[in-house]
Design a protein that fits this description.
The complex is a heterotrimer.
Chain A (H helix, E strand, L loop, with lengths): L15 H24 L6 H28 L5 H40 L6 H7 L26 H24 L3 H33 L7 H32 L9 H26 L1
Chain B lengths: L10 H34 L15 H30 L6 E8 L2 E6 L4 E5 L5 H4 L17 E4 L4 E7 L4 E5 L4 E5 L5 E5 L5 E7 L11 E7 L1 H25 L6 H20 L17 H5 L1 H10 L15 H13 L11 H8 L5
Helix pairs in contact in B: 1-2, 5-8, 7-9, 8-9
Chain C lengths: L1 H9 L1 H4 L4 H6 L4 H29 L10 H36 L7 H21 L26 H28 L12 H32 L13 H18 L2 H15 L6 H14 L15 H13 L1 H15 L8 H24 L1 H7 L3 H31 L5 H28 L13 H30 L36
Classes of the chains: A mainly alpha, B alpha+beta, C mainly alpha.
The complex binds heme-A (2 copies), dinuclear copper ion (CUA) and copper (II) ion (CU).
């Protein structure tokens, strides 16, 4: 074997993938039944299966990552492998971007096309004249063609504050990263902690905003297209923040254990990328959902 | 069965046919050339004939050539296609306008220039479908009340739907347009020859998508006028009869026979001949708690439907007499035996939003 | 080269395969995972095919004969879903797993554990889909395109199961695609430059990119279906400010690239087989790469050609028509290049070559009908008739499936170490070739004459042709039993295959012994 070539580590057998597959099965099958039961107001095994699936998933993740961390700490990973991980993570984020694109696309279509057509634009004059003569195409869609009314969420209160919080958290995370690269452990720990804290504050405020929307504004998931896109976009974003925060939390624990070196810190990098991605999504969201 | 696209009976449909034939022949020629060369090499350049393989593997010149030629051919196809398309989409200056509404599994026609509207349902008997009777000539392509349009006039169709997406298609006119719920699409035709033209729903719309034909009769304008007058009179008479009915009460036997007929025509597709429905999608009528215990709700669901489900508002589709009959029927058939008769007036009360 | 293979023979430790069921459940080996994908795809092909047989049985004669319309729709839907997501896509992924590391000189896929996870998700996803057929009310019956509101307000209870099963199929595909891209990008042997990669690798690279771009959009679409049906949203309901056609835009933004996901790897396979049996290098390698990339780019701009009748404004319709027509150009380049490769070669006609040749002719016919469909005014007549069904079965069955079969014959000796039975293979080929045309060619005529698709019963004029088509279908189905026979026979033994297997074969995979050792290229091979 030539010396210049670092061997690519191909892990031996691993039980975790199949465990993960079983977990996804339980989650999907359970969630499916849970939703069906819920819609018929009956109870069944769905919810339990879903919980079981989530539990198995957590079990799997713990086991899998423990393996990965052990392997990483014992120096099995070459720089080529590090590149594989980085590229894998980047493409995963691309796929996440496309997932959000589906909803942004829907928002764009509903707002720029469907709403105008319902109001008689383009080749839909008769749609308006015969089917929805009372409809007024204004965004935010506070009154749907079918007559559901709601109030719009203003942009310059909490949402603006939340935007600031997330943006700052991206900056603090960046400083944590430079801290890591310059081997300033204190800066790393401190900044990472602040980032996490900001993430949690964001989530709390977001929860508060939901309550406000439901209770005071009558803005609900079923309030028509405005409410739909509002909740699905912010909701999926919130889920991603939660996931990002969890990743950062475990990264934080590993930082405390002294796991990363200035040269090798894929997990930290991945968590940071993810966090920045979630941040960018929010900025788009803030503009397209709240401001415009 | 004709082996090619129908030429149809409108100028547009002829154009479409021409387009179809043009592209078809272009494809045939390209195919002949490409496959010809390919089979030539298969035959000539076989190892079995002892040939030595050449080793060339590149030529920018031919690559450019066989990129450019198809582009030119495509432009040649696109020009007539664009012209025809623009003509098809121009629905302005129509003489007659019909609002076409699809619903599971029938068409509703409403003439915006006259007091005429009616449903158009499959007329093929269920026994034929179930292979119990010999199939008629127009099996699955026949309806009780066809759409009637005048020849030589521009007829505009406004398409919409009450539930899922349907698609109104008459091949002889080259008109196929989706009927989207909540939106109105437009299409038009000008038919030159009187006749009966048949088509089908062309968008999967659920269970009986295959049983939702379109039949159009094109009449000379004079005949068309006669038909309009007759139809207006028929509909006016039916409305008057409705009003009279409110004061009358029908006897149980009449209600049950009419009710059974209506059930077979309108309800059976979902709730089944047995009244058992299809579990998990269409509820049973037999032993239904709603039917047995809540007369008011029973009338209401038939008149106003149940939003968000396939149960439609039949109050708009059936006459008072038919409604009363079918409600009575479902209250007494399938071992429901409530012994209850529902009269037109009862239905009318619910329709007006009042209690019984 | 022999130095490396030599090393393997000594390195017993490395070629030691785990045994028993654990080998398959816990594996991280790209060859094992590839095998599992391929076997799974074959099983799904038979299940999906059996559903097609139910369809053809019911359509054998007019009148309702064997099944209820509701059940018929479920068969149509699940047939489409299984063939697309369960048979063709996993088969290609299986081939990618087996061949890509060997073709680029990599020791394995880049992320081996995730690779196993991607596979094992799939059987569970399809288990859920198939189980949903047994729910009261039945399984999905709204077509594989699940147009709203038929799939939302008007669908049966089991829809949530459909949604979640599609979700996890998507997760599997995305992870599989990430693995392929990273492998190709990061694991090529030294000096295996981009423009030296075999075309199969190239086409898969681009396919994987398409997958990453569009599978999440499908996930978005099913999510909106879920919330519209169960949580009161109105994405696809005008009363709430939505639009049913919005669903179609989202679906086809995924759906059209999806059909190229099912054909680009096929192009790669054919581009491997034709030069081998013509004993002549592939003509226009670089233009093949660019053509594939152009097809991929264009595929994002044509989605609404499935929606010409939905009432889009004219300018949008025209835009989509022109873009769609343009795809004929790069696809034509591919076809011409294959023909030019054969020109003045020295051809032999073993089974893989036969299927590849049939692919070129029949796929092109399917492409021609695709081009006809692209002409909007004509599409108003073709849309949702059997003409469309004929089109896509030509590109999918005699296109994608034929290419997979060709690939299987081509690489079987490499996988098993034995030659398949050439006579049986030829029998399989001729039976398939004849019956596939009996099955799908008459569909063009039925469609032109006006028979809509997705109907369980039809007017009397279509009776003779449908009977004919059904017979063709049964024959094609039976022919595939020969295929299974060939595979089983080959796996169990036969004439020993050499490392190179085919006289004209070139590429790294032909430099390792047959069967390929459990681990190949632990150290990277020498690339010329
Ligand atoms: C592998 C799958 C695959 C492939 C490769 C294609 C390829 C193409 N398809 Fe097809 N298509 C499907 C799978 C596929 N399709 C499916 C599954 C559906 C139905 C979905 C559903 O509704 O359920 C469908 C439906 C479909 C429609 C919608 C029909 C309708 O519902 O009304 C259209 C319309 O434009 C279309 C067009 C095309 C075109 C233009 C190509 C082109 O890529 C073809 C290009 C190839 C050639 C043209 C041949 C070779 C070229 C030459 C030899 C060069 C010279 C040629 C000329 C200049 C003419 N397809
Ligand atoms: C790659 C994809 C793929 C493949 C391989 C096939 C393969 C086949 N398909 Fe297709 N089909 C689709 C994708 C595919 N299909 C899609 C996407 C749709 C649209 C769905 C929709 O509208 O939503 C569709 C729809 C469709 C229809 C239209 C249904 C309708 O509109 O109502 C029909 C009708 O004939 C049909 C037939 C067949 C047949 C006979 C085969 C044959 O090639 C199958 C051959 C295989 C076997 C038969 C299995 C193997 C053999 C055995 C199990 C042995 C036993 C055999 C016998 C008893 C004879 N398919
Ligand atoms: Cu109505 Cu199909
Ligand atoms: Cu397409």
């Amino acid at each position: 074997m030539s010396k210049t070539y670092e061997k690519y580590y191909v892990p031996a057998q691993s039980p975790w993938p199949i465990v993960g597959a079983v977990a996804l099965f339980c989650i999907a099958f359970g969630a499916g039944h849970y939703v069906i039961d819920m819609s018929k107001q009956q109870s069944g095994f769905g919810g339990w299966l879903l919980l079981l699936g989530l539990a198995i998933l957590v079990f799997m993740l713990v086991g899998w990552f423990r393996n990965v961390i052990d392997e990483s700490m014992s120096g099995l990973y070459s720089s080529q492998m590090d590149r594989s991980f980085r590229q894998g993570m980047s493409w995963f984020i691309v796929s996440e971007v496309m997932f959000f694109m589906a909803f942004f696309g829907a928002l764009f279509y509903g707002r720029v096309i469907a709403m105008e057509w319902l109001g008689g634009a383009s080749n839909n004059a008769m749609t308006f004249a015969i089917l929805w003569p009372d409809f007024q195409p204004v965004w935010p869609l506070v009154k749907t063609p079918g007559g559901i009314e709601t109030q719009a969420m203003p942009a310059w209160g909490l949402p603006a504050i939340n935007t600031a919080i997330l943006l700052i958290s991206s900056v603090t995370l960046h400083f944590a990263h430079t801290g890591l690269e310059q081997n300033k452990r204190g800066q790393l720990k401190g900044m990472l902690f602040v980032t996490l804290l900001l993430g949690v504050i964001f989530l709390c405020l977001q929860g508060y905003e939901y309550v406000h929307a439901y209770r005071d504004l009558g803005l609900r998931l079923d309030s028509g297209f405005y409410g739909n896109t509002f909740y699905l976009l912010t909701g999926f974003h919130g889920l991603h923040v939660t996931l990002g925060a969890l990743i950062l939390f475990f990264v934080f624990l590993r930082v405390l254990k002294g796991h990363f070196t200035p040269e090798k810190h894929f997990a930290f990098q991945a968590g940071a990328w993810y966090w920045h991605f979630v941040d960018v999504v929010w900025v788009c969201l803030f503009f397209f959902v709240y401001v415009l | 069965m004709p082996l090619n696209m129908t030429r149809g009976v409108t100028e547009i449909s002829q154009q479409v046919y021409q387009l179809h034939m043009t592209i078809f022949w272009i494809c045939c020629v390209i195919g002949a050339v490409v496959f010809g060369i390919m089979f030539w090499s298969i035959i000539r350049h076989r190892k079995a004939r002892g040939v030595q393989p050449a080793q060339f593997h590149e030529s920018t010149k031919v690559e450019i050539l066989w990129t450019a030629i198809p582009v030119v051919i495509l432009i040649g196809m696109a020009i007539p296609a664009t012209k025809t398309l623009i003509a098809m989409e121009d629905t302005s200056a129509a003489d007659v306008t019909v609002l076409v509404t699809g619903s599971q599994w029938k068409w509703h026609y409403k003439y915006l220039d006259h007091e005429i509207e009616y449903f158009s349902l499959l007329a093929t008997p269920r026994e034929q479908i179930a292979n119990k009777l010999a199939k008629g000539e127009n099996y699955l392509l026949e309806v009780d009340r066809p759409l009637v349009i005048p020849t030589g006039k521009k007829v505009r169709f406004l398409m919409t739907s009450d539930d899922v997406i349907h698609s109104w298609w008459v091949p002889a006119f080259a008109v196929k347009k989706d009927a989207n719920p909540g939106f109105i699409n437009e299409a038009w035709t000008r038919v030159d020859e009187p006749g009966i033209y048949r088509g089908q729903c062309a968008e999967l719309c659920g269970k009986d998508h295959g049983f939702m034909p379109v039949v159009v009769i094109a009449k000379e304008p004079a005949d068309y006028q006669v038909w309009v007058a007759q139809e207006e009179a028929r509909i006016a008479a039916a409305k008057a009869a409705e009003r009279e009915l409110l004061a009358m009460s029908m006897d149980m036997a009449e209600l049950m026979t009419t009710g059974e007929r209506v059930y077979q025509g309108w309800c059976v597709a979902c709730h089944q001949a047995s009244g058992n429905g299809l579990p998990g999608i269409f509820p049973a009528i037999r032993g239904s708690q709603l039917v047995l215990n809540d007369r008011r709700a029973h009338i209401d669901i038939i008149v106003n439907g149940k939003p968000g489900t396939a149960m439609q508002a039949f109050g708009r589709q059936l006459s008072l007499k038919e409604l009363a009959a079918v409600i009575t029927y479902t209250r007494n058939a399938f071992d429901n035996n409530t012994g209850d008769a529902v009269q037109a007036a009862d239905v009318y009360a619910v329709q007006q939003g009042k209690g019984e | 080269m022999s130095a490396i293979t030599h090393e393997h023979e000594h390195d017993h430790d490395h070629d030691h395969k785990p045994t028993g069921i654990k080998r398959w459940l816990f594996t991280t080996n790209h060859k094992d995972i590839g095998t599992m994908y391929l076997v799974f795809a074959l099983v799904m092909f038979f299940i999906g095919g059996s559903m097609a047989m139910v369809i053809r049985l019911e359509l054998f004669q007019p009148g309702m004969q064997f099944v209820e319309p509701q059940f018929f729709n479920q068969m149509t839907t699940v047939h489409g879903l299984i063939m697309v997501f369960g048979a063709v896509m996993p088969a290609f992924t299986g081939l990618a797993n087996w061949m890509i590391p060997m073709m680029i000189g990599a020791p394995d896929m880049a992320l081996p554990r995730m690779n196993n996870w991607s596979f094992w998700i799939l059987p569970f996803a399809f288990l859920i889909l198939l189980l949903s057929l047994f729910m009261p009310g039945g399984g999905p019956d709204f077509g594989w395109t699940f147009y709203a509101p038929l799939s939302t307000t008007y669908s049966n209870d089991s829809t949530a199961l459909f949604v979640f099963s599609v979700h996890i199929m998507g997760i599997s595909s995305i992870m599989g695609a990430i693995n392929v891209i990273v492998t190709i990008w990061n694991m090529r042997a030294p000096r295996m430059t981009w423009m030296k990669m075999p075309l199969f690798v190239w086409t898969w690279f681009i396919t994987a990119f398409l997958l990453i771009m569009v599978m999440p959009v499908l996930a978005g679409a099913v999510t909106m279906v879920l919330t519209d049906k169960y949580f009161g949203t109105s994405f696809f309901d005008a009363a709430g400010g939505g639009d049913p056609v919005l669903f179609q835009h989202i679906f086809w933004f995924f759906g059209h690239p999806e059909v190229y996901i099912m054909i680009l790897p096929a192009f790669g396979i054919v581009s491997a087989i034709i030069p081998t049996f013509a004993r002549k290098p592939l003509f226009g390698y670089a233009s093949m790469v660019y053509a594939t990339a152009s097809i991929a780019v264009l595929s994002f701009l044509v989605w609404a050609h499935h929606m010409f009748t939905t009432g889009m404004p004219v300018f949008a319709t025209l835009f989509f028509m022109y873009c769609t027509m343009l795809i004929a150009v790069p696809t034509g380049v591919k076809v011409f290049n294959w023909v030019a490769t054969m020109w003045r070669g020295a051809m032999t006609f073993e089974v893989p070559m036969m299927f590849a040749l049939a692919f070129i002719v029949l796929f092109t016919i399917g492409g021609f009908s695709g081009l006809m469909l692209a002409i909007t005014p004509a599409d108003f007549q073709y849309h949702d008739t059997y003409f469309v069904v004929a089109h896509f079965h030509y590109v999918l069955v005699s296109g994608a499936v034929f290419s997979i079969i060709a690939a299987a014959y081509y690489w079987l000796p490499k996988w098993t170490g034995y030659m398949y039975d050439e006579r049986l293979g030829q029998l399989h080929f001729w039976c398939s070739l004849i019956s596939v045309n009996l099955l799908f060619f008459p569909m063009h005529f039925v469609g032109l004459a006006g028979m809509p698709r997705r109907i369980p019963d039809y007017a009397l004029q279509f009776a003779d042709f449908n009977a004919f088509i059904s017979v063709g279908g049964f024959l094609f189905g039976l022919s595939q039993l020969i295929f299974v026979w060939v595979i089983v026979k080959c796996a169990r033994g036969g004439e020993k295959a050499t490392a190179q297997v085919w006289e004209g074969a070139e590429g790294l995979e032909w430099q390792v012994p047959s069967p390929a050792p459990y681990h190949t290229f632990d150290t990277p091979p020498e690339v010329k």
